[in-house]
Amino acid sequence: MPPKGGFKKKAPSDGAATPLTPTLAAQLSYLHQPRPFKNPNYTKNINRRAKNLKTVLGQEREREKTEREARRLEREELAKTDPQAASNIPEEVPTYTTIEAPPSVIPHKHLCDITGLEAPYTDPTTGLRYHDKSVYEIVKGLSASVAKDYLSARGVNSIVK
Amino acid sequence: MEENTPQTIFRLPTTYLPTLPPTAEPYSKHRSHHTPIVIDNGSTSIRWGFGTSATPYTSPNAVAKYKERKTNKPLLLFGEAIDSESGVRAQAKTPWEGDVLLNFDALENALDYAFIQLGIDTPSVDHPVLMTERLCSPLHSRALTSELMFELYNVPSLTYCIDGIMSFYQNHLPPPKQPFASNGLVISFNTASTSIIPILRGKGLLSQAKRIPWGPSQSSEYLLKLIQLKYPNFPTRVTTIQTNWMLHNFCQVATDFPALLRELRDPLKLRASEVIVQFPFTLPVTEEKTEEEVAKIAEKRKEQGKKLQEMAAKMMVEKLLQKETDLQYLTNLKETKATENKREWVSKLQAEGLSDEAALDETIKKLDADLKKARKKEAGEADEGQEEPTFPLVDIPDADLDEESLKEKKKQKLLKAGFEARARARREKEREKEEREREEKKEEEEREEDLGGWARKLRQEQEALMAKIKERSKRKAALTDRKSAAAQARMKNIASLAADDRVPKAKKRKGGGEDMFGADDADWAIYRKIYTAAPSSDEEEDLVQLQVIEQKLLAHDPTFTNKHTHASIASQRSALMSAFRPSYEEGDIEGNTRIHLNTERWRVCEAYFSPGMAGVDSAGLAEVIQNLVPSFIESRSRTTPLDFPDDRAELIQNVFLTGSASRMPGVEARLHATLQSLLPPGSPINVMRAEDPTLDAWKGMAAFTRTEEFRNVGVTKAEYEEYGGERVRRWWGGNWNGEFSREVGDAMQVDEPQQPAKAPNFDDLWGK
């Protein structure tokens, strides 16, 4: 930090300055501990480090696409001369994006948005699922914004009618 | 709150200040011995140590740069030290962003801390490093980690492995000198995701691995959301640290979730299943006063009141005296009129601030009245016997009056009207009062004669009013729906009001084409009907009337209790709702800082099996395993026969759980039941949790560094410089993505010692 105003007064010392005991946090800090093992000539690439999650995953996806394309070409090339060798080239290398579990296709029981119990009914106005009429009383009394919050807990973001 | 079986109430844990870390162990043992360093870089905790140690150092994987307030000194705190001062946590950063290693400044700080703790004092970290990375880690993360390791710390070689596989290895350690060849399905519970990794003949089969984007961090967030919805007005802020604690201590996986929900339908069972979390609260300080003090204060107040009264009385007497002297003076003045010269007299008047004789008379009259009133008051007489004012001019025809008198007559007319109106109102009031009394008397008689009949009648009235109120609220609710009959009728009314031909043509002709709206007072009711926003005054009236009736019933009908009043009926909650979220009295501060967890305890963990219920569109654990079955059970396979059918069957029958979150109670039983339903009947199913789900990955890695094989799977500094930070060598415990291309890999493997004996067609296996 650049020095602020050169003529800042120092705290008045009354001679009997209390010896400062470092706080626990100060004792735990390792900021000034020696790190001889670090390479002093290393400079970090700030731009490379500053990438956010979205770009990283986007890049990953892009790379995967091009690699798959390259493999396909290679296989086709090889198939012309040596069909045996072509089958040895692996089809797919699992990457961060490909190992993601697929969307669920099993139907799941609907749960009451308020209580978490089984919900055989759905309120047509809010779209909230509810367990029985006593819960419906509550659902009816919910304001639109609260109903929206309940829905968003289930990942449903309502469309403005 | 109703009486109930006393439940254990859990208090939030008290936080302890972190202690100073142990001093670094002597480095001399490892200096220039190339002892491998093992780092399990998890997103919650980082564990590190030399491969020769039995247990690692463990610390939360977070770092905070902080400026101390008192000394203004910058601090760098790692792990538990973050909790040493409040306010630091808000600035803590972790190397991980959810599931991806992304923040390399934080990673650098973490690694610095780790190496400092290991006591390394040489100009470089001259140890081969074995480090975990995420299953199929994005290459960006790997590239930057390698860059740090090779360029900043100058490690001689670096190997990446997958934590889940290494934990499995630790729990299935092969006999010395033999290759690792166990089969099993690893379910690795990471912080922000859960991975399923099949291990066939000791090799991670990553082509079949899957990652479910659900983990404890999502569970904890989901729990927080549910709590916020259940307690929207909770007095204190609930933090994720607290929900984490609740998740770890009170949440579990249900073996049969639908059956559990059916059971919890019963309010009593729901109540029995609950866990109460008491948040800290402060009772408002009420000053306790002794009787003596209260009496003293009352005495003091009384005295003050007396003093004030005395003062007021004194003032009044003074004023009265003043007025009396004034009156005396003015009357004297009036009397002098006869004796004195007129001009002098008028100037005297003007000196007193009076314009003429009339004004003087008026003033005198006023003063006189005031004095009389005051005297009467003094005498304790009522104010009422006011003499009736006379209006002599009113009855005289205008023609007989001069201009002055006409003005006066106008004034008197007005005064008379006012006076008469007041008198009328008074009479009206009296009549009403009499009527009321009469009615009350009649009612009392009726009540005394036939209490049952009276009560019935009142109750009917009460019910009718309640029905009316209910009807109104129903209509209000119906109006919010555009398509309801009420809303449609309202629209029709509006349309007809706006229309020009509201008045029928025939009528128009008769009435000279004039709009007769409003001629009848009832016409205006239409506006009240179509105006929905404001609460109608009828509502208030009804409520007041209802209250009156209820008061009467409460007072005289012994069978009518507080329970029957409109207020309590309206606020009545069903047994289910009050079991789900028990309510406390308004002023019960202790009760209102409690969180009751019941269905949430299972609901939160159930999301591992159906993330969709928390808004994550992904297959759950059971479904992912189900999708794997055809690749591992020959009879369920739809395509070509499988290689190593026995090993494959063994793999899917042996589920291995690792990672801290695998400690969730009930998860083993649930997975056992799941597999039972998926696999052929009679399959021997074995669900096993790692001996130490938290540390076994590190221990497995450490064990691996002690084998001969470890030397062959890493990337050396020279290779890093040649091929970059993304490349790795494919081996059984590591990732496949970013592996060296075949030619390079083959070329490099030439001068490596022979791998342990392989199965004959391993290449087929690896190609899958």
From TrEMBL, chain A:
Residues 110-139 form the Vps72/YL1 C-terminal domain. Residues 59-80 have a biased composition (Basic and acidic residues). Its main location: nucleus. GO terms for biological process: chromatin remodeling. Keywords: Nucleus, Transcription, Transcription regulation. Residues 1-97 are annotated as: Disordered. Residues 1-10 have a biased composition (Basic residues). Residues 16-26 have a biased composition (Low complexity). GO terms for cellular component: Ino80 complex. Pfam families: YL1_C (PF08265). It is found in: Nucleus. PANTHER family: INO80 COMPLEX SUBUNIT C. This is Vps72/YL1 C-terminal domain-containing protein. It comes from Hebeloma cylindrosporum.
Automatic annotation (TrEMBL), chain B:
It holds the Pfam family Actin. Residues 442-451 have a biased composition (Acidic residues). SUPFAM superfamilies: Actin-like ATPase domain (SSF53067). Residues 376-397, 421-451, 749-768 are annotated as: Disordered. Residues 421-441 have a biased composition (Basic and acidic residues). Belongs to the actin family. PANTHER family: ACTIN (PTHR11937). This is Actin-like ATPase domain-containing protein. It comes from Hebeloma cylindrosporum. The lineage of its organism: Eukaryota, Fungi, Dikarya, Basidiomycota, Agaricomycotina.
